[in-house]
Amino acid sequence: MKYIINSLSVNTFGDPENIPVIFVHGFPFDYSMWENQIAELKNDYYCISYDVRGLGDSYVGDGQYTMDAFASDLFSIVHEMNINQPVLCGLSMGGYIILRTLQRDSKRFRGVVLCNTKASGDDNEAKLKRAQAIDDINVKGLDFFVSNFVPNCFSDFTKKKNPELVEKITQNAKRHIPKGVKGSVFAMLSRNDTNEILPKLEIPALVIAGKDDKITPVTAMKEMADKIKDSDFTEIPNAAHLTPLENPEKFNKALKEFLDTKITK
Ligand code: MLT
After folding, report:
1. Which pLDDT score, from 0 to 100, does residue 112 have?
2. Which of 31, 97, 241, 242 to mutate for ligand 1's pocket (most ligand atoms within 8 Å of CB)?
3. Does the domain spanning 2-263 belong to CATH 3.40.50.1820?
């Protein structure tokens, strides 16, 4: 089913009586990046995947977003759709949104899956890269930016073995509205550090890293997992930053095992 909630495009799959899992995509992607996971889970879990404000079919508005506003969007989906204690699963920017959401109120959630993400904010080098990204989109256009940025999210293995996937995801990202993409860049650049929430989390967590990820490396992700009391850690082989797309078999196995054993009704 497709819903518009608070001007956000929300897609649901499966029986609303099952345990809900909300998927939050990374940058600059959309809800469809979770299609392999939804295909695997939708018979046993109620899967919800939405387009982050400014991307996909969600409303772009003035393009001025913050990570906190993205967290408010996630809360509005939970409230307005009456979703009871969902599990949150986010990749990279999706993880930033989830960590800010948990910092505001973690009691509303049953568990969390953090993929290829981090709790720290941008350092100076990262901020300057964001400035370059905005400049590239303004001066050279979204296609130029996407053609450089998106393939770098994939491992060499995926680029060689599955160039069609790299091409499909790259072309898909070119369909966004530039103002919305720049809005996400600003929101990431200005996000707060959320490390303080990690040791306070009272819900089970699964942390998933990609073996060849240069954006959120395995060692940093393991350190993040170690700060969470009840956490499992998995490293996905033959994958870089886009683990659920690059190695869906291994990713789904880890996700399903976590949900089936750690998450209860
Ligand atoms: C993402 O995948 O969401 C982005 O690469 C995150 C980032 O640029 O910090």
Report:
1. 98
2. 241
3. yes
